[in-house]
Amino acid sequence: MIQELKKDIKAVVLSEYKLMACILVMLIIFWKFINKLISTYIVCITETVSNDSLFIALIFFLCPIFIALIKCDYLKRETKKFSQRHLWEFFLFVVYVGFNIWGRFDFYSYMGISYFACFFWGMFFTEYVFYCLYRKEFQGLTGLYKRTHPFFIDAPTTNDGYNRDFLLRTLLDKVLSTFDSHYFVENPNSFTILLSESFGIGKTSFLCQMKKAIRGGEYQNKIIYVEFRPWLCEKTETMITEFFSVLHQELNRHFILPTGMFSSYLSLLVEKVPDSYYSFMFKSLYKKKTLTTEHDRIMTFLKQIDRPIVISIDDVDRLHDDEVKLMLNLIRDTADFPNLFYIIAADKKNLCLSLERLGIEAPEVYMKKFINFECLFPANDAVLKKIFQEKLDSVLREYSCTGSKDLIIDSIFEIENLLNAFETPRDIVRFFNVFTFAMDCIERNGMMDEINVADLFAISIIHYLNINLYRLFRDDDSSLLTYDDYTKSLRISPSYKSVFEDPMFAEIAKGTNPEEEDISIAEINDVIADVFVQKQTIFRYVICFLFEQERKDINGYSMRYPDSYFRYFAFTKKRTQILRAEVLAIFSPTYKGQYEIRIRDIIRFGQESSFIHNIDKWYNEFDDSKIEILKKLSLFVSLLCELKPEIVDTNQIMSKAQIVESFMETYDIHRLLNKIYYNKLNSISSGSVGQEETEKKYEKDRDDFGEYIRSCKYEVNFISLVLGKIRIRREHSLLGKKNIEKWSKQIIDNFVVALKKCDREQTFFRNTLYTISHVAALDTDYWINSFKDYVLASPYFMDWIARVVSYKNNNFEWNEPLKEQLHLPNLGNRGIWGQIAANSIHCEDPIVKDFAKILSKDLKSLDRSSHPYLKYVEDYWKSNDMYK
C-alpha cells in the first residue's frame, strides 16, 4: 500500500511540478507587487464583509463541500490514492500559510480562525468524508485487480539482456568497412545479411538495438537506417510501393533527391505484379520508360551518397508464401544497387518451407542467390538461466509466499534439467504468464498459505508444455494416479510407471548407463530426432518431483496429498476440504466451547478426511497440548458414531464398539495418535540426549495422559484402541514403557469395575462383548486374571458358563466367537473355564459339576441326553440371543 501511494505521488508531482514551480517563481519575483496589490485593492473589497461572522465562515466552510457534490460522480470513480487534486489542495494550503507567515495581512476571521482557514477546513473535511464513504469501498473492490501480477509482455526491447552489444558493433563496423572499400570495387552492389534464428531468440530486439544505435547513438551520422515492415501491407503489390516509399522518405531526410527518382522505377516494377486495381492505377500514372534507364538513374545517385544504407526487414518468415517470394524478388531487383545493406530477420527453416510449398525443389540452394551472409547469434549458456532466475525472483517477491523465497527457489531447482523445458527466452516469458495467472487465482481466493508454491510451479510447467496432459491430471487423475496406503499420498499408477518414471531410475532398471553408450554415424538422425522431443523428458522429471521425489519442502498442502490435490487445479478448496487455519483454530484454547459445534459441521459437510489430514500434517503447530488433541479426536469419533453410523454399516447392524473401531481404522486415528505420542528424542542417533532430559521434556505429556486415564472420562473403546496401538511400539513412545503397562492395567481395572455395575442385559450386549475384546487386547495375562475374578464373583456366573457352549440348529459347539471376544485365543476352551468352575462357590451345583466333566472330554464325544449341563444350555439359548 505504501509503495502504491509513493508511486501515485511521484506520478502526480512529475505531471504538475513545472506549473507549480512557475507559480512559485512568479510569487517570489513579484512578492512586493502582490503584497501591495492585496493591501491596496483586495483588502478594501473584503472590508465589505463583516468580521467575526458565523454565516460568512459557514459559507467558506461549505464551499468545497458544494463543489464536491457537483463533482460527486467523478470523485466516486477516482482510483488513485493521491491525485492531482490532492496536490493542488496541498499547494494552495502552502501558499496560504506562506501569506500568513510572511505577508502583513489581517484576514477577517471568526473566533480567531480566518475565513480562508475555514475554507481549508471544509476542504479537508470533504476529503475525509469522501474517503470514508466511497474511496475505501472502491479501493477494496479495485484492489483485487491491483493485486494481480501483470502479464509479461513479450515485446521487443532495446535493453541488451543477452549481451549482444559486441555483435551489433561488429556487424555495423563491418558494414562501414565494406562501404569504405566500395571505391575499390568496380561494380558495387547491395549486401544481404540473414539473421537466421528460430522464433523467440530475440531477432526483433536486436534490430531495435540497431535502430537505437544508428538513429540516436554513436552511428547516428555514419549510417542511414531504413525500417521496412512488409507484414503491414495487405496486398503483395503494396509491398513494393511501401518499400520504395519508406526508402524515399528516409533518404529525403538526409539528401536532396532527384525528382521522381523512384517513381518510374516503381511503376515498372509494379507491372510485374499480377493485374489488379492498384497495379492498373500505377501503370496509368507514370510515363513509360525502360526499366534499365530508371535502374541506372537510381544506381548513379546511390553511388554518390556518403554513408551506407541499412535496410532492416523483420518477420519475413511470417509472410504468406507468395509474399515471401515477392520479398526475395524485391531484394533481387535491387541487388546491384550500391551501398544497400539488407538485414533480414527470419527463421531460415520457415523460409525454406514456404519456398517448397511454392514448388521450388531445392529451397536452400535457391536462397543462396539472395543471401550473402547468414548470421547467427553467439552462444550464451547463461542467458536462459539468467532470465529465468530474474523472472522467478521478481515473481516470488510480488506474492506473500509461504516460507522464504530462497527455500522455494531451491526447491524449484530440484527439478532436474529444469531449463530444458524452455528453448528460448520467449518460452520463459510465456511460461511465467501461466504461472503468475495461477498464483493470482490462488492469492485472490486467499489460498496462498494453503499451497506449496514449488508444486504449483511444477504443474504449471505441464500446463505450459502439454495442455492435454494437464487436463488429464485435472479431470481424470484416477487413471494416472493411485493412492499409497503406506505414505498416505498419491503416486503414479503402475500402469503408467514406465511412461513417467524418472529417466535415471529407468536406466538403472535397464542396467545401462546412457553416457557410456557409443553413438554411431548411422544413429545421428535418431539423435537429432530426439532433440525435437527433448521436452518429453522434462515431464518425467517434473512428475517425479511432484509425486515421488524426496524433498525438504514437502508439507501438508503438497500436491501429492489427496486433500490438497484439487486446489492446484481449482485454486480453491473442495467443499469437502477444510483449511489448515480452521484446524489450527479448533485445536486452540481460545476456541474453547466452540470446537464441538465446528466438529459437528465438519462431519455434516463431509470434511472428515480433510480434517484428519490436516491434523496429521500440522499437529506440531497446534496450541493445544497432546492430551487435548486426543480428547478432541475422541469427541470427533463419538460424533461420527452419532451423526454418520451408516458410513460403516455393511449388511448387519453393528454395535457402537464395532463402529468406533471401524472409524478408527477408516481414518487411521490410532496410527495418528501413535505418531503424535512418538518420542522424537529416541530417533536421535547420538548419545547427546540422556534419559534425564527425555523424562523432563515429556513429563507434562505423561502427567496429562495419566490424569486422563485416572479420571475415567474417556470412551473406553477409543482409548483402548489408541493405547493398544501405542503399546505395539511402546519403546518408541514418549509415554514410557512402564507407564503404558500401568495405564493398560488401569483401563482394564476401570472397565471391570464398570462391568460389575451392568445389569444382565447390559452385560451380554454385543457392544459390551466387543468392548471387552478391545480392552482385553491391552494386556492379555492381566485381563485373564481380572476376568476370572470377575466371573467368579459375578451374579451372572451361570450365564457365562452357559455361553461357553453355543446351541444352534439342534447342535452344540464350543463357542469360538466368545473365546475370541474375551481375548482368550491361546488358551484352550477348557483351561480358563475349568479354573473358574473349580474355584467357584457354585462348584457343587450339578450343572457346574457336569460342565467340569464335559471340560475333561471332547464335546462331540458326549451323549447329550446324559448331561444336564447340555440341557441347561439348550434351554438357555432358546430364550437368549448371544448376538443381540
Give the tally of structural domains: 5
Question: What is the CATH class name of the largest domain?
Answer: Alpha Beta
Strand tally, please? 11
> Distance between the terminal alpha carbons, to the nearest Å?
69 Å
Low-confidence sequence ranges: 273-287, 511-523, 685-689
Q: Supply Rg.
A: 45 Å
Protein topology:
Blueprint: H1 2-29, H2 31-46, H3 54-70, H4 72-77, H5 84-102, E1 109-110, E2 113-114, H6 115-146, H7 165-180, E3 191-195, H8 203-216, E4 224-228, H9 236-254, H10 263-270, H11 277-285, H12 291-304, E5 309-314, H13 321-333, E6 340-345, H14 348-357, H15 363-367, E7 373-375, H16 383-398, H17 405-412, H18 425-444, H19 453-465, H20 467-475, H21 477-480, E8 481-484, E9 489-492, H22 497-500, H23 503-510, H24 524-532, H25 535-547, H26 562-565, H27 567-570, H28 580-586, H29 595-604, H30 608-618, H31 626-643, H32 656-666, H33 669-676, H34 691-697, H35 699-711, H36 716-728, H37 737-756, H38 760-763, H39 766-776, H40 780-793, H41 797-803, E10 805-808, E11 811-814, H42 816-821, H43 829-839, H44 846-855, H45 868-879
Parallel strand pairs: 3-6, 3-7, 4-5, 5-6
Antiparallel strand pairs: 1-2, 8-9, 10-11
Q: Can you summarize this structure?
A:
The chain is mainly alpha-helical. It starts with a helix and ends in a 5-residue tail after the last helix.
Explain the overall architecture.
- By secondary structure, this protein is mostly helical.
- The chain folds into 5 domains: 2-146, no CATH class; 165-375, Rossmann fold; 383-514 and 529-570, no CATH class; 625-684 and 698-778, no CATH class; 780-884, no CATH class.
- A 5-stranded parallel sheet has the order 4-5-6-3-7, with helices on both faces. The chain has a two-stranded antiparallel ribbon with strand order 1-2. A two-stranded antiparallel sheet has the order 8-9.
- A hairpin with a 2-residue loop joins strand 1 (109-110) and strand 2.
- Helix 13 (321-333) packs across helix 14, helix 37 (737-756) runs parallel beside helix 40 (780-793) and helix 40 packs across helix 43.
- It starts with a helix and ends in a 5-residue tail after the last helix.
- The relative contact order is 0.04.
